[in-house]
Amino acid sequence: MSEVIYMGEKNKKLSEKIEELSGEKITLCEQCGICTTSCPMADDMDITPAGIMRYSQIGDEKVVDSEAIWICASCFTCTVRCPRGIDLAKVAEALRELNLRKNVDHIDVNHLDEELNELPAIAVVSALRKFTS
Amino acid sequence: MKIGVYVCHCGGNISDAVDVEKVAEFASRQPDVAVVRSISHMCSESGQRAIIDDIQQYNLDKIVVSACSPQFQGETFKKAVAKAGLNPNMVVMANIREQSAWPHHDEPENATEKAKILTAMAIEDIRKKEPVEKVTLKMGKNVLVIGGGIAGIQASLDLANAGFNVYLVEKKPTIGGHMAQLSRTFPTEDCSSCILSPKMADVAEHPNIHLMTYSEVLEVNGSIGNFNVRILKKPKYVDEDKCTACNKCTEVCPVSVPDEFNLGMTMRKAIYLPSSTAVPHSHVLDEDACLGLKPLACGLCSQVCEADAINYDDMPQYINLKVDTIIVATGFDIFDAHLKPQYGYRKYRNVINALEMERIIVEMAEGHVIRPIGKDIAFIQCVGSRDAQVGNLYCSRICCMYATKLASLLKRMDPSREVYVFYTDLRAFGKGFEEYYRTAQELGVKFIRGRPGELAEDPESKKVVVRVEDTLTRKIIEKKFDLVVLSVGLVPGEGTVKIAEMLKLPRSADGFIKEAHPKFRPVDTPVEGIFVAGCAQGPKDIPDTVAQASAAAARAMSLMNKGEYEMSPIKAFVHEDLCDGCGLCVDKCPVDAIKVAGVAEINVAVCKGCGACISSCPRNAIDLRIFSNEEVMAQIDAALRDKKPGEKRIIMFADDMCTYTLADGVGTAKLKYNSNTYIIRVPSSSRVTPEMMVRAFEKGADGIFLGECEAAVSPYPDTLKVIEENVKKAREMLARAGIEEDRIQYSPFVTVMFKKFVALADKMLRMAEKYGDIPEEKRRRLGMEKVIYHE
Amino acid sequence: MQKFPYYPGCTLKQTAKNFEKSAIASARAIGIELVELPRWNCCGAVSSLTSDEIMRHVAPIRNLVRVQQMNDEGMLENEYRLITLCSMCFNVLKRSNMVVTGDAEMLHTINQFMDTEPDYEGTVEVMHFLEILRDVVGFDKLRARVKKPLKDLKISPYYGCTLLRPKEVGIDDAEAPTIMENFIEALGGEAVDNPYRSLCCGSYHTVGENKKIVAERTYKIINAARRNGADVIITSCPLCAFNLDNRQKLTKEMHPDFEYMPVLYFTQLMAIALGKEEDAGLEDNFVDPRPILRERGFLGVKQ
User: What mean pLDDT do residues B479-498 have?
Assistant: First the structure.
């Protein structure tokens, strides 16, 4: 069954919010797909990076609820490849923050990892920075 | 002096808002006005007739038409007064339609008052006007065409056939350019060198074309009608007329180097025939590859040459020419795919670029296999184009089509082969293009909408792995190909960049040579007498190149055809008795038109009439013909006459090309702005000196605004800098007299900035109201201010 | 000895002690003293990328203030080039430095906030140790100091992400870097090509439920290195080192055909080549590099 997206005020507000928070002009994305095939994590994502940009452009909540933005590793490969010069890493960050700023963590700090003692500090700090509010 | 003033109703367009009779009555009370009429349609046959009859009957010598914009009907009235025997400069239009009746249509009283003042300004302007002679240059019939690709070839043939004398200079040993390297051309699949060869032969045989190959333009001085060109003709060491191209020399030559014509994929000898279709059809000895000429290291080629064509003592020749016009046809280079290392060009064996593919196909058709191409082939589009990461934001226009063509050729060669084109947009815009794309699809070429971020190589099979997001299914797809072809874009050629610098031709943001006007003068450059054709101006295909080449030839012909060329009469000139040769003006001129020989001399052929030099002269020795200093100041004075107490008036200087056009546009769109703004038309706001600005305040102005074209569309380079400097000096003088500096503002404009114009006019008025009236003593103190000139 | 301010970062005092130890020793061997910043704090490991971020620049900037203080207090003589070893610390510090010095209002706000600290004046230049080797010391000088050239040792450089990206921050061309290859050659080793040399290792996904993502990357990167004949891999980031080294265990569980390969910090090889093998800290690496190094004759021979 195909899904119809009824575009309304909510969509406009969401895409504006994403643009504002990321500081990037997401309307510049021409959907070429270079980001997707540059992304080392793309195979594990439910929405591809180009898809993330598209859903951000039409302001569909799906992108804020996606798993993909959490699979992102902030490696910046998309940023250095985008032919329109868009910094996608900032867009992904904005989408994560839209969740985290609701005071909802993506990772449960209390049940972090049996390996906590063996993990390097850099791993724990960066994970908590990206996944918690 | 007897002035005739004609006020137009414009069929209601003016008279609905402006009380035309009151304006006519006002005009009749102005000094030297002998005849005043108000007429329904001035531009009509009867309106023009009225002017002509009055001139003849009443011996009028100057005419004012208060009607629409001079940009709208200015030419009409110039022709009318010329018919009546007056100099065409003896008519001025007061713009009471676009700049009063229309924008102030809901303020009829103010619109009428403003129309009166605009008419007064026109009257005072014309009282100071003098007849101006035509500016003509003697023109000969000599043209230099730089670049021997299809653009240069076509332009040369058109000119030569029309009886003009063409010097065609090409840096390679043969003409033909990149077109000679192609296999087939889209959308007809004509064999490229087959259709090109006859034209190349025509060039070689044409009595009016002096062909210089293996030659480079070293230096160009002078201006239209008088270009002095210095050319280096490199030694070929082979006499073109004696060589029979028998190839014996090539066979014995011991040196092999990469063949440029085949992009380094095959080898050639040091003495070689540049290509099988080379024109001139002669071998050439590459002295850098040769084992040695001085002293002679080998000498084998000369020994076997039966035509005795080889001459080791050949020397470079320097040729000096004088030509009247120049056509730049220096073409393009392809984007160097090394700049996108993620695609593995020259790293992965099976990744090549599109031009290499062309050569491979051509050679295959002749039975030589340069390299195997395998079965399954992929094309990657937009390599080096539409890419902010390499700094090429533009689209190269031809790659979608050439890839479709190459894909079709490959598929037809072997229908069992899989051919994919990975694109972002498929641009098939030209005649026959969409149909050709459809045919390619019918052949089974697969088009996938997705751009790969990188290519990988299968370590065992050396096949290339292409991974893309098929953006239409949103799935990532991966496929191995035997060969991947990078559809590289076009970049400004090395020759184009060098010649642009040499001839002082500006380049657009994309790096290609900039045309004088993007819509209406696509083959003119901003330098008078120099034209551009083909890919030197921007990426394009062969039909567009040929069209441009013929257009450039026609343009050159139109300048040279009558033996003399009439230029715009708006030129700066020097009052030699006032000039002391200080030379401050020389650097101010944006086109280097001034040199000092005792006194300053302005080269009329080069001068663009912007007037930027005027404000640099401490002795006021420079003036402009038409829009002269006196005329501008007369308009300023008239604009500020009879100000009521408390009334605010803002003077706006509007450059003709952009700001004045913009103001007209705003009026035409009936957008409203305050009626306190009075516009004075100038060729460039840089001709407004600090003294003029200060004088405006002295006479009662409450604010001044200067509008000028944005640099990107300006016909004059660098005038914005001059305006900035002039405004700074004027502001300093205001400050010394205790007047607020920001009463003077300036800004670049383009003709579509309607909202910005309206906002600005209103902002100026609000500021004037906020600051209040300028007290009389401050205005008088201004009158004592002098401009400080730097050394 | 030329003194430089040095920012270790948390992990170099914790699981990556061998990185620091080998770095300090090899730096000393080429005449550089790494003077640790007093009272430094954690840089935060990652940059916050939203447009409204100010707060999370405080921690990195405070470290840069320390550099100023070191100069003011005579610990350093007019040296504002801060050396980092950890690629992620380098990226965060350099990025914050760029953002803050480009926005006068933000700098002012941060300085106001850190009211007990001296103001940051924007004078510090954040550099990575490899940059110092290339631009300040010069790879030729490094080569001249090598006592034990790593002859025939095939080394695959692994750049990871944060050393090269984004372009404004990177120490070399993001698509075709050569700095590590040049470093390897200066040590006398043989640089082996790896198409995945800047493929992200998986970074912080090593924490939590997505460890397998990391293991898959490890598999890909190390296999590519092996296929091109590499003996060892070098890296500059303790997170990359953990992911490429320690996670080999998980990789082996997921892919039984996987073969271990030693992963070293570039300074560990540098220490060995400069004759300081006792400071190379090789005993702390997860996959033991000593067998292969011993086999090739790089260990155990006193110079």
Answer: 96
Residue of B335, B381, B389, B473 to mutate when probing chain A, most A C-beta within 10 A:
B389
Nearest to C175 among B341, B456, B457 (CB): B341
Which residues of chain C have a CB within 8 Å of the CB of A44? Answer: 210, 213
Query: Any residues with CB less than 8 A from the CB of A3 and at least 6 apart, and which?
Result: none
Reported for B589-593, long-range contacts at CB under 8 A and 24+ positions apart, including other chains, are B589/B613, B590/B716, B590/B717, B590/B718, B590/B719, B590/B722, B591/B504, B591/B527, B591/B716, B591/B717, B592/B504
* Partner-chain residue, chosen from B424, B454, B474, that has the shortest CB–CB distance to A37: B454
Distance, C-alpha B171 to centroid of its chain: 24
Q: Report the alpha-carbon distance of residue B680 to residue B128 in Å, rounded.
A: 15
Which residues does chain A have within 8 Å of residue B342's beta carbon, measured at their own beta carbons?
A: 81
Q: Does domain C2-129 have CATH number 1.20.1050.140?
A: yes
Q: Are residues B342 and C175, on separate chains, in Cβ contact within 8 Å?
A: yes
Helix segments in chain A, DSSP class H: 9-22, 34-38, 49-58, 68-71, 77-81, 88-100, 121-131
B145 in Cβ contact with B169 (< 8 Å): yes
Of the candidates C51, C165, C166, the beta carbon closest to that of A21 is on C51
Specify the pTM.
0.84
List the domain boundaries for chain A.
9-102, 106-133
d(CA B357, CA C246): 47
Number of C-alpha atoms within 13 angstroms, CB side, residue B683? Answer: 24
- Chain A residue nearest residue B475, CA to CA: A48
Q: Which CATH architecture has domain C140-295?
A: 3-Layer(aba) Sandwich (3.40)
CATH assignment, B1-132: 3.40.50
- Chain A contact set for C204 (CB, 8 A): 73, 123, 126-127, 130-131
Shortest distance between the Cα of A88 and any Cα of chain B, in A, equals 14
Distance CA B526, CA B524 (A): 7
CB < 8 Å from C in window 405-464 of B: 456-457, 459
Task: Please judge whether C49 and A94 are an interchain contact, meaning their C-beta atoms are less than 8 angstroms apart.
Answer: yes
Q: CB contact, 8 Å: B543 with chain C?
A: no
Amino acid letter, residue C46: V
- pLDDT, tens digit, 9 for 90 and up, residues B21-75: 999 999 999 999 999 999 999 999 999 999 999 999 999 999 999 999 999 899 9
Among chain A residues, the shortest Cα distance to B425 is held by: A32
C166 close contact with A: CB closer than 8 A: yes
Query: pLDDT digits over B758-771, tens only?
Result: 999 999 999 999 99
CA distance A76 to chain C (A): 6
Q: Which of C173, C175, C227 minimises the CB distance to B459?
A: C227
Amino acid at B456: A
Query: Cα(B530)–Cα(B226) distance, rounded to whole angstroms?
Result: 12
Find, among B603, B609, B643, the residue nearest to B624 by Cα.
B609
Helix (H) or strand (E) holding B775: none
pLDDT single digits (tens) B660-671: 999 999 999 999
Looking at every residue in chain B, the average pLDDT score rounds to 94
For B67, B161, B292, the CA distances from B670, given in Å and listed in that order, are 16, 51, 77
- Chain A residues touching residue C59 (CB < 8 angstroms): none
- Smallest CA-to-CA distance from B324 within B129, B93, B558 is with B558
Cβ pair B469:A85 closer than 8 A: no
Q: Any idea which architecture A9-102 has in CATH?
A: Orthogonal Bundle (1.10)
Distance CA B325, CA A125 (A): 70
Closest CA to B506 of B517, B308, B249: B517
